[in-house]
């Protein structure tokens, strides 16, 4: 992981957008443009710091907007200047961590993707200066007076943002530009002026800058299609299975699926030995590739002595839901010669549904004997097995 800081520019007037107001406030699929952009950076774990450059007259409304959309975390505000370049320098001066690469990004480019950001960070950490760009796909003509010429497309790139630099380098480049009165249309050009190489990191054609009203229409349909695609995409499924056995012994309660069942013997174990809840917990952990309950609740740990297995299952379930998974369904079987399980099946289903905060229709509990065969048949112990299906609707 390479940490970077980000200067996000939002202090322009958006004149070419012809909206009569700063385009950063315009909504794409109900959400203001600047919120789309900030969210990309806020959600990127590599982004350590965000400086948002705004017009001083819009600072208050921008702050309110961020509050409303709950994207204030880690964002500091600074006032911009008359030109983009002035705004960048104001942003750079407000950066706190000057030891990591700084990304300079147009607030008007909401669709930059995380893969591009990370490739840019890696290149900048190695080379000191880099920008996202895409190959030009049209033929580019140059008109000088009446003379038309055709540029060699193979050498042409369309510059995007972020553009990323070692902090000291880009500050020096901006100071030199101030001293010489040079204004560039991007930041890389200031570094190029110092005869320092800037690396190109190939970006995505989706990373458009919203400049004209047509761009706003494009952005609107881009976001809608993205949302539709997500809605239509198959949720990601994970399946897990569990199996557990506990010995039957005198002087212990017989707790199965969180329900205490009257019986002359109970289940022996370090915790309350609820064989069914252990099995379900194992199946859940298996589904997300997290080992088994022995890994999470070692039977050598005194904390889990006589532990309520309902609490253990709820802890496991919080790990599952933290990863964005929801329950598809659980199917499980209790393998016991005795006690007779049928009278308790509905209560057990309800108990499991309650522990997992889900609907009882998603939980199926069956019971079987082993026709007096084996350790269960001899009533020496009880076994349980379970299959769980999880689905993750957050992934496409
Ligand atoms: N003085 C300025 C000018 C521009 N920007 C920001 O720089 C980015 C790229 O600039 P551009 O697309 O040209 O935005 P505007 O200057 O707002 O647009 P226009 O040129 O049409 O007025 C935008 O996110 C814009 O808010 C800025 O922070 N400060
Ligand atoms: C920095 C930039 O987005 C790279 O394409 C672009 O040059 C900004 O230009 P603008 O005139 O400020 O839109």
UniProtKB/TrEMBL annotation:
One of its GO terms (molecular function) is 2-C-methyl-D-erythritol 4-phosphate cytidylyltransferase activity. The record marks 16, 23, 270, 369 as: Transition state stabilizer. Residues 237-390 form the 2-C-methyl-D-erythritol 2,4-cyclodiphosphate synthase domain. Residues 238-396 are annotated as: 2-C-methyl-D-erythritol 2,4-cyclodiphosphate synthase. Keywords: Isoprene biosynthesis, Lyase, Metal-binding, Multifunctional enzyme, Nucleotidyltransferase, Transferase. Bifunctional enzyme that catalyzes the formation of 4-diphosphocytidyl-2-C-methyl-D-erythritol from CTP and 2-C-methyl-D-erythritol 4-phosphate (MEP) (IspD), and catalyzes the conversion of 4-diphosphocytidyl-2-C-methyl-D-erythritol 2-phosphate (CDP-ME2P) to 2-C-methyl-D-erythritol 2,4-cyclodiphosphate (ME-CPP) with a corresponding release of cytidine 5-monophosphate (CMP) (IspF). This is Bifunctional enzyme IspD/IspF. It comes from Halobacillus salinus. The gene is ispDF.
